[in-house]
Amino acid sequence: MESKNFLILTVYILILFVSIENIFTLSISYINFENKTDIEIPNIVSRKEWQARPPVARELMDDKPKPYVVVHHGGIIQYCFDVKTCSAIVREYQNMHLDERGWYDIGYSFVIGEDGNAYEGRGWDYVGAHAPGYNTQSIGICTIGDFSNRLPNNAALKTLEALIKYGISLGKISQDYHIIGHRQTKNTLCPGDKFYEYVQKFPRWTSKPIPKNSTTS
Q: Is residue 207, in this structure, part of any structural domain at all?
């Protein structure tokens, strides 16, 4: 009789243990799922989709998260609010950088349109040609248009912030990154007075960035 009771008790304990383990596993899965949804992934239009020309050459970034994000504007009074128009402008940027400036490719890591899309330039993994002294240690993000007298629209600004957060989640941008304007790296008005005022309000903006030597085109 005692053996039978012991066997029943053992079975009950095993059932209880399995139930608790399943509940714990489900809870962990739910937590992980929730964490993933915290990152808003911006829509990135690939090079193939915007019909990029192939690069002349490429230089791989090192695998360390980048400490800087450099903000640019196109500097031309030319705006876009749909994929077709934005893609055409990004192709113009690439043509100018390749044919007039003799660079290897479009200079920026990403280009943002006021359609709310990010357009893949050199991407996360290849050294850009957008900010002297920072090309090897930054992600360069350009917003299409001239923002001397106005800000990019909310769709573009939201994508800028989402792209930075996404880069951090991928390990491409350091969690302790600093954001700077292009004018902090050379004598230029980029990213425009109005946009630069906005950039300076970012919590991660720094007035004292530290350059490194870089010869990448």
A: no
Task: Indicate whether 25 and 101 sit together in one domain.
Answer: no
Q: How far is CA 210 from the centre of its chain?
A: 21
pTM: 0.82
Q: Same domain, yes or no, for 187 and 90?
A: yes
Same domain (yes/no): 64, 8: no
* Domain of 185, in residue numbers: 44-200
Omega cis (within 30) before 55: no
Per-residue pLDDT tens, the chain, 217 aa: give them.
445 454 444 444 444 444 434 433 333 332 332 344 478 899 999 999 999 999 999 999 999 999 999 999 999 999 999 999 999 999 999 999 999 999 999 999 999 999 999 999 999 999 999 999 999 999 999 999 999 999 999 999 999 999 999 999 999 999 999 999 999 999 999 999 999 999 999 999 999 999 986 556 6
Q: Return all residues near 93 (Cβ < 8 A) that are at least 6 apart.
A: 74, 106, 107, 108, 111, 142
Whether residue 38 is contained in a domain is answered as no
